[in-house]
Amino acid sequence: MLIRDAAGGGWTPTPKEARKVEVDQRISDLELALADQMAKNTELEQRQQDSELALADIIAGGVS
Length: 64
Fold this sequence. Notes:
The protein is mostly helical. The chain has a domain at 21-64. Helices cover 77% and strands 9% of the residues. The protein has one helix and two strands, in the order ββα. It has one helix at residues 15-63; strands at 2-4, 11-13. A two-stranded antiparallel ribbon has the order 1-2. The radius of gyration is 26 Å and the shape is rod-shaped. The termini are far apart. Residues 1-21 are annotated as: Disordered.
């Protein structure tokens, strides 16, 4: 809902609507940050698996 802006004669959102837009934007920002963090975690998990496999190869090579 919009209300008449007395100063400029235009329209402005109600405080409740403005707050809703702010909250929606914050949620969107948090979702993007979460997706980014999940991608980083996936990359780190893959690097850890690669390191564990390399270590297993080194150990197996050292034993034989």
